[in-house]
Amino acid sequence: MKKLLLLTLGITSFSTCAFGALTLDFSQVGPDVHITATGTLDVTGLTLVDDNYGGSPTGAFTNSIAEAQAAGMARPGDDYYTLPIALPIFSFVDNYSYVGTAGISDSFFYFYEQALSQTTIFVPDGFTSGPINSLVVLPNVDLTTMNVLPFSGLSWGAGPGQSLSVTSSSAIPETSTYLAMFGFAALGVFIWRRRKINCQRSKATAICR
């Protein structure tokens, strides 16, 4: 019964974390930067600019003092809305442009225009509310050079999906690093068990010390 209760609490906690307000996160994963948009989004209360984005598919990220800031992925036909508050997501230090790759994931694109003081978000065609799971990978990019400006709680309503946060995570090891760590741990357990068995088989005190 106790295990069942703990399992239920664990599932509840996971659901709460997985489907909270939308978070746009920038993480260093090995040599690459991963831009993810995860959580629940509800566009109710936002102003619809157009319900048919006519641009080409992009996994691009751009930062320019003269033009705009952008991060994420947009597809032709996407809907896009203006946010009530225009917030930059990068400090205007250097001009740079990185082209990323996007897998099979949801569209989500954050577009800040400095001259108009306006922020637009792009979402899948016909989207109104629900989970978003988007990933763009910027190969061979150092996250520290991007000068991300985190913020939390940009809200346009009281609903659980009516707010947006931007975060910048610390470095995350590559998969190969995790495998190496696991290998060392497994080797340590093997050696410990082997020695324990030898101790049990031997009556010599010196071996067990």
Any overview of this molecule?
With 209 residues, the protein is of the alpha+beta class. The chain is built from three helices and 13 strands. Strand 9 (108-113) and strand 10 (118-123) form a beta hairpin. It is globular.
Main attributes?
2 domains, alpha+beta, 23% helix, 3 helices, 13 strands, 6-stranded mixed beta sheet, 7-stranded antiparallel beta sheet, 209 residues
**Main beta-sheet annotation:** 7 strands, antiparallel
Global structural class: alpha+beta
Helix content: 10-25%
Shape: globular
How many beta-strand segments? 13
Record the SSE blueprint:
Elements: H1 2-18, E1 22-29, E2 32-42, E3 47-50, E4 60-63, E5 68-73, E6 79-82, E7 96-99, E8 101-102, E9 108-113, E10 118-123, E11 129-138, E12 151-155, E13 163-168, H2 175-201, H3 205-208
Parallel strand pairs: 1-13
Antiparallel strand pairs: 1-2, 2-11, 3-6, 4-5, 4-7, 5-9, 6-10, 8-11, 9-10, 12-13
Summary, kept brief:
The protein has 3 helices and 13 strands; from the N terminus they run αβββββββββββββαα. The longest helix has 27 residues.
